[in-house]
Design goal:
about 30% helix, alpha+beta, 5-stranded antiparallel β-sheet, Serine Threonine Protein Phosphatase 5, Tetratricopeptide repeat, 60s Ribosomal Protein L30, Chain: A, Neuraminidase
Length: about 725
Amino acid sequence: MNSRFWLIYTTLLLFTSTIVAQPLPKLKEDGLKFFERGKYREALELLTRYDEQKSGDVAVSQAIGIASYHANQLPKAKQYLSAIALNTKNPDPSVLLYLGRTYHSELNFKEAIKNYKRFLSLTDEKHPERRRVVGDVKRCASGIKILTQPDLALVENLGEAVNSRFDEFAPVQSVTIDDRIYFASAREDSEGGLRNEQGLVDVKNGHYFNDIYLTDFDGGDWHTPTRLENLLINTSRHEWLLDITNEGKTLVFFRSSNQFSGDILIDTFKTQDETRSLPPNLVAPFQPENGDNALCFFNDSILIFAARRPEGFGGLDLYYTIFANGNWQAPKNLGRGVNSAFDETTPWLAKDGRTLYFSSNSTASMGGFDVFKAVFDTDSLVFMPAVNLGKPINSAEDDMFFRLTPDGMRAYFCSSRREGFGERDIYTALFKNFQREQTPSVPIAFHLWEAVKREQELTDANKPKEQKILEVKLEPLFYENDDDLLRGVNLTQLRTILNTVKQFPTLKVVLTCNSVEGEKASFDLYFSMKRVERIAKYLIDNGLRNENIVLKAVGSEYPIAQTVVNGLPNPTGEKLNRRVDIAIIDKETPPSPIRVNYNAPVVSEFMLNPVGNRLKKHDSGLTYKIQIVTTRRIFDNDILSKYGDAMIEAIGTEGVYNYSVGLFTTFEEAIKMQKDLLKNNQKEAIIVPFIDGLRISDEEAKQLNKKYVDLYNYLAAKKKP
């Protein structure tokens, strides 16, 4: 056995024998000393033994509660801290702080807010934790909303073969071996052993420094990690891998004495050549000595990194630099869609070159650092506002270093969530669907779109001024929650609508909101209208007129996919049903020179719901509906469910709602329902004709009755007294 083993073994033996032999006062004294030095597991062992023999010491109970939180023993932390908070009139603010953090870690945001606010009431502006707690209250409020989002993936801990009771972070998948990851860890076999903050050996009070490790997956389990056997990489200082470049031949790593500032070095994976020189520094326009870090290479020609600079938005911002003409160019800030007044770090760019993942501790997180996703908009040439990935990828703790695997079905990241084995653990996210951003695009990355757009503008300017057919490609606006309607790909669709209708002002945009079944059909209908009104407001705020926009809400009347398949919930079906359909209609003669290609959702045969096809009948040719009421408020009446095919129509943001039921292709069928409605005291029931989904006036009906012969019956009935 080597000398390091005997050193660790002897230290543990002495520690264990000391616990057994110590009298009660000594147990307390030594336990509190460990606590003050941040040795929480050691403190917890001693203080718990003391408390078992002599309970009721508030200082000891408080230390046990806080140490339990740090040792990932949340039930024990809550037990001790709650007892003090309930039984003490003015408890130490730290009790409420850590009780709040314990509830926060459990995603019990309401209880966390309650304890955070009590902490704030007992502290003044000078308290060092006050500013963070104010932010955590806001993060809890964000967390309450985020919990309503559907889970994107299944998250699994890589297990105790990989993760220890120490710190594991910065996972990077091998470029050449799919089932291998590299990561950093500060554990017992690290190169430097126990050292203090000055980097000197300190067996009593020191901590392990980070080394770079690797582990392989053999199809069943992850292997026990091994330190990277490179003579020049792992040293007695902190090292962790930043990225792998040059088609897997070169690694870029960070070396530091304090984890915050140091050197960024490049090296190979060679292990035997002892004559090699020390790894050289990476030459690029950043200052690692001032804290610039968290590098991500893309295609070996783009470098994204985190830096704290005066021109930034605050805290760490993400910047990028391009390798051109043999040099890295001056860095540029990635913009407000990515950066905030807080810290943004650990960036990673997907294969499409336009989808950026990163971590931020802004108040849009659930707590600590959360993983966000920002998509580059090729029209505005900026990254759109980032979206929180939600649980279970994010937790109330720090979730960072997120990277998708090349197959787009998994991701690796690290998290300090309290159910882990130690400080931070390595996790994998298993996605339900292929992440499309892992498909390469043309051009290969976001920074090239400006040149593409400029070239396109020059090409268009030199074209003959002939009228050409404008091809407009549209897709449904899918949403998990209402905020999604004006985000990401949906926002790109709405910009297409704005550009099209501004160019041809006679066009009408028809927005039809579908939803999943809720508690009540009338609520589904009304809230669907509120969603499309939100979209209408965005369009009007950006230049459209009310008369350009027709809004329809059908709620859960027309599902295109089954939400239960073989007796089991079908989340994919719910996602397909939760959408806003778009149509652009031109009633003018001659029509505007546009061709709309609408990419309607494709539903596989095994989950197809034929009910959804019924609405297509309304959007093609002549149909009739029965309008039962016009109002500015919700119409909560069982008549909507009884007669079916319920719909609300509105124009723009005028706020006048026309409720209708029924859907018929002949006037004779419509008049039967109208008579039945009148018998049921629906005195406002009137028959309304539609052509291609738009209601028409009596004057328009007279002009169209030769093409749609059944309109003669409608017009004849209108003449009767």
